[in-house]
Specification:
By secondary structure, the chain is an alpha/beta fold. It has two domains: about 140 residues, NAD(P)-binding Rossmann-like Domain (Rossmann fold, 3-Layer(aba) Sandwich); about 160 residues, Dihydrodipicolinate Reductase, domain 2. The protein has ten helices and 15 strands. The strands form three sheets. Strands 12-11-7-10-9-8-15 form a seven-stranded mixed β-sheet. The protein is globular and about 55 Å long. It starts with a strand and ends in an 11-residue tail after the last strand. The structure holds (2R,3S,4s,5R,6S)-2,3,4,5,6-pentahydroxycyclohexanone. The site of (2R,3S,4s,5R,6S)-2,3,4,5,6-pentahydroxycyclohexanone has 5 residues, from helix 7.
Length: about 325
């Protein structure tokens, strides 16, 4: 079996993480990388024996690139994914697919013009063991219809210059995707409610409570707390008619000592979702080999972007905002 040849656009932290994963997995070879900054590009290239190209166009057009991995800053995703799709290449794009719903729509149009699915979005939580168990239990129907989804997404602190809307586009975006996937339903409205501001954040609103409602009337109640300080903590519980299903946490050593019980939490998402990151890449590569890409699709990226737009409006209006997706194109049905 010939190794799949990968070109990477954007060589920050997550790209380097993917390079290490690909090296461990085998079956794929990074051949070219590009970045707006030369030094990180050279460092990333040295890790995998790739060459540095001067532009993203050169990566996309290279004959020895079958797959383009887009790990550039979010606001550049649209341009980079469109170039790759228009060149007929398979694309793995880190979330978000694009920062606007309009950008995602353009990507779907390009993919439809290509006549087949080329794009997978990096919503890695769909490959997490805990979420997969939850999905199986919800879908199995044994516990009755789902009524409420309660989620919490807490980060230790903002890792970059953070703004209030980033709590939606960078952070809540994971639950936006995972809840519609868990429920197999689409959102119809969005609301944001603010409790008192934490002393741990100054330049943006934190924490906040997000309420989403789906077409079947299911409520998603999501707490986002970017600067909780104590650890990286992601929780999800689905209240069904005849039972409550809680996502299991990855197991860590449980210690009883000095009159207390203690179990440590991971301190970032790459460690917390380590297995999910591996399994998503393996599924993507297998999808390219078989010509049958798994989700998350560009439609999923689009649905998340439309919901994020409504939530940003809701952050400002503090009113209930409606969400309208329109019809799902045949390619994604
Ligand atoms: C980051 O980009 C992620 O993807 C993490 O999963 C999320 O917890 C964090 O808030 C984001 O900034």
């Amino acid at each position: 079996m010939n190794a799949l040849r990968i070109g990477i656009i954007g060589t920050g932290h997550i790209a380097v993480d993917h390079i290490h994963r690909l090296a461990r997995m085998g079956g794929a070879q990074v051949t070219a990388v590009s970045s707006r900054r030369r030094e990180p590009a050279e460092k990333a290239a040295a890790l995998c024996g790739a060459r540095v190209e001067d532009s993203y166009q050169a990566v996309v057009e290279a004959d020895d690139v079958d797959i383009v991995m887009v790990t550039s800053p979010s606001e550049l995703h649209e341009e980079h994914v469109l170039a790759a799709v228009n060149a007929g290449k398979y694309v793995f794009c880190e979330k978000p697919l694009a920062v606007t719903a309009e950008g995602c729509r353009k990507i779907m149009e390009a993919e439809q013009a290509a006549g087949k699915r080329l794009v997978m979005v990096g919503f890695m939580r769909r490959f997490d063991r805990g979420y997969l168990q939850l999905k199986e239990a919800v879908t199995g129907g044994k516990y009755g219809a789902p009524l409420i989804v309660k989620c919490a997404h807490r980060n230790i602190e903002a890792h970059v210059a953070y703004t209030t809307d980033m709590a939606i586009t960078q952070t809540a975006i994971h639950e936006i995707d995972i809840s519609r996937w868990l429920l197999d339903d689409e959102y119809v409205s969005a609301q944001v409610i603010y409790p008192p501001q934490t002393k741990n954040a100054e330049s943006f609103r934190d924490p906040e409570l997000i309420i989403l409602r789906t077409s079947r009337g299911i409520i998603i109640n999501l707490e986002i707390y970017i600067s909780c300080r104590y650890g990286y903590d992601v929780q999800c519980e689905v209240v069904c008619e005849d039972g409550v299903l809680r996502m299991p946490q990855p197991s860590n050593l449980f210690i009883r000592s000095e009159g207390a019980c203690h179990e440590s939490l991971e301190n970032d998402w790459v460690l917390r979702f380590d297995g999910a990151f591996d399994d998503e890449l393996l599924a993507f590569l297998e999808g390219v080999r078989t010509g049958n890409l798994p989700g998350p699709t560009a439609w999923d990226g689009y649905a998340a972007a439309v919901t994020a737009d409504a939530l940003i409006r809701a952050q400002q209006s503090e009113q209930i905002e409606t969400i309208t997706l329109g019809e799902k194109p045949a390619l994604y049905r």
